[in-house]
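#help-structures

NK: newbie question. if I give both the sequence and a SMILES, will the prediction place the ligand too? trying with zinc ion
OV: yes, paste both and it writes out the complex. here, I ran yours:
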Amino acid sequence: MLKGVNKKITILDGSFGFQLDKYVSKSLDGDPLWSARSLASEPEAVIKVHLDYIKAGCDIIETNTYQASIPGFIKYLNYTKEEGYELIKKAVSLAKTAIERARKEGIISGDTRPLIAGSVGPYGAHLHDGSEYNGYYTDKTTIEVLQNYHKPRISALIEGGVDLLAIETIPSKKEAEVIVNIIKDYPDIKAWLSFSCRTDGVSTAHGDNFKDTVTSCYKLNPDQIIAVGVNCIAPHAVEPLIKEVTDIPLIVYANSGEKYDSALGWDNNDEKLEEYIPTWLNLGVKYIGGCCRVCDNNISKIVEEVRKWEATHSE
Ligand SMILES: [Zn+2]
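OV: that's the protein plus ligand as structure tokens.
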């Protein structure tokens, strides 16, 4: 069990960008830095998003660094390498500020506090073309390029003081292995490893076999990886993927199930994510939250469902 979390099931937060839209002057959808731009432009909005999720009752909040990268900050904010590195550290301090505020406002009390997970999105996220959902860049991107992309952000997040890392929306085994190997240089940090997957029930977004991929990545570093799983997928597509994986702690944070069309926008056909929760928990999911289009209200419903399930499944 993760140090600092005493519950059987650990609850994560929801979408950062979706919640952020409530507080920023202009939506960041379509921005090449996406929600990461707000670290520089609207830090107060970032704190408010964290606070909303703390109020909703989650055990872990994630830094706003999914699409944050030093090359991205150099290109789109005219930052130096050093300033880019500092902005990633600032993302951690904004999460810490939110926790301090939650304590002052009486939302949390005593020694308890949500943990801070440093979000480590895939290389494809900074390409800003949706390629984390097909992993098309995987074969033409060298291991060295992937290492150079991931290592500085991981280093900045750890230096900033995160409690653990959220390695997420990774489309391929190749990229996952690179990151899992990088964290061996920081043996004190724990991490979860979550993939973007196809809806065929067997493959990662890039087409690797999901079960083989999560099993072999977990075995590569069982001391540091606390859970493996899937995120940013429609709720109905989760069960076939995870039911084949046994004896490894699982993490699931699905999206709302809505589909996006560049001409028509979101189709508003969301699935009731909370209704899937008992099934997932019965399959060994230990970490549960939400991804795109899942907001603080949805997390409150997830908290309710999880506590109900825990009450009837005492060890
Ligand atoms: Zn997502």
